[in-house]
């Protein structure tokens, strides 16, 4: 099947083709979720988002046992926050969650709310920290997340299954974990993860190179491509044979995020991986994650379904209200 998405001279699909001729200011706006905030004034969106994240996370820490700043590496931000069920079973499922913040701000402590409705089900929820840009580079952050995953696999060797998720930048990093040869790099099983749920992810970082977002990232065209899931379509499609992949995004995302998700789903299908997705109604980029404070939230239910279902999700895509 011939793709309608153009490719570059290396044969890599141009997910960012729509924005190739945009000026830097326009590109920055297109990739700024706060500009497309649905209910909060765009100028206040990030501050309100962070405040609500903190509120939800503080509540979660009051409710559940947890371990803060568990080191998986030697650098200060190479730490994990681990939320534990009241009765921890030896084979408890483990969810790794990678936080967002455009790889340059936020931390595990600000994302404790993710654990609020999964821990009572018996899930160990591990929030992954990493060295933020500009101190760290994207390639270093990807490596750190791999190291964190390997650390957790060895910490919970009898778990019935490891799963991984993340939002925004964390969604991008979640997808990058599917490019890893765990056996070759860490002497761990190739099928390290049973499921992966990137939420509001970016799959092609090349459009960011000329934006102000890149001031801290320091990406070049080559390093952006090397750190983009779009460069590893065959590997990710192959990984989907042993790891269930579900992509989630809001229907009020910034158009750049929404289009990237839709195009990546199409490209995976062209590579033989018919990937299910959920487009959540009446949710912008920030609301998608903040909604996880609710027990019946679509993201919570999707993670619950993936972790506790023994069957592969077969829907080609649903729109959830």
Topology:
Elements: H1 24-30, H2 45-63, E1 65-71, E2 79-84, E3 94-98, E4 124-128, H3 138-155, E5 162-167, H4 169-177, H5 182-186, E6 193-199, H6 214-217, H7 221-226, H8 233-239, E7 244-245, E8 247-250, H9 255-270, E9 277-280, H10 285-290, H11 298-308, E10 318-320
Parallel strand pairs: 3-4, 3-5, 5-6, 6-7, 8-9, 9-10
Antiparallel strand pairs: 1-2, 2-4
In short:
The protein is 34% helix and 15% strand.
Which key features would you list for this structure?
alpha/beta, 34% helix, three-stranded parallel beta sheet, globular, 321 residues
Structure write-up:
The protein has 321 residues and is an alpha/beta fold. It contains 11 helices and 10 strands. It has a 7-stranded mixed β-sheet with strand order 1-2-4-3-5-6-7, sandwiched between helices. It has a 3-stranded parallel β-sheet with strand order 8-9-10. The two termini are 33 Å apart.
């Amino acid at each position: 099947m011939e793709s309608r998405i153009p490719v570059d001279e290396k044969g890599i699909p141009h997910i960012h083709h729509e924005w190739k001729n945009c000026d830097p200011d326009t590109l920055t706006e297109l990739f700024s979720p706060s500009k497309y905030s649905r209910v909060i004034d765009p100028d206040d969106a990030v501050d309100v988002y962070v405040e609500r994240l903190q509120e939800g996370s503080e509540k979660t820490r009051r409710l559940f046992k947890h371990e803060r700043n568990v080191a998986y590496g030697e650098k200060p931000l190479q730490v994990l926050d681990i939320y534990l069920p009241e009765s921890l079973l030896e084979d408890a499922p483990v969810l790794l969650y990678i936080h967002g913040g455009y790889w340059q701000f936020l931390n595990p402590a600000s994302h404790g709310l993710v654990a609020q409705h999964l821990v009572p089900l018996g899930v160990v929820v591990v929030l992954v920290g990493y060295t933020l840009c500009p101190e760290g580079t994207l390639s270093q952050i990807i490596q750190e997340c791999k190291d964190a995953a390997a650390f957790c696999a060895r910490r919970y060797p009898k778990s019935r299954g490891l799963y991984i998720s993340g939002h925004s930048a964390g969604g991008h990093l979640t997808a990058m974990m599917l490019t890893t040869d765990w056996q070759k790099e860490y002497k761990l099983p190739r099928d390290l993860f049973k499921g992966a749920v990137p939420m509001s992810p970016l799959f092609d970082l090349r459009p960011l190179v000329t934006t102000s977002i890149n001031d801290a990232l320091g990406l070049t065209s080559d390093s952006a491509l090397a750190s983009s899931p779009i460069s590893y379509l065959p590997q990710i499609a192959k990984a989907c044979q042993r790891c269930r992949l579900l992509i989630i995004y809001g229907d009020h995302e910034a158009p750049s995020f929404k289009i990237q998700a839709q195009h990546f789903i199409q490209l995976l299908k062209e590579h033989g991986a018919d990937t299910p997705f959920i487009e959540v109604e009446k949710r912008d980029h920030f609301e998608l994650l903040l909604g996880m404070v609710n027990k019946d939230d679509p993201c919570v239910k999707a993670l619950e379904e993936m972790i506790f279902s023994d069957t592969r999700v077969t829907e080609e895509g649903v729109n959830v209200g």
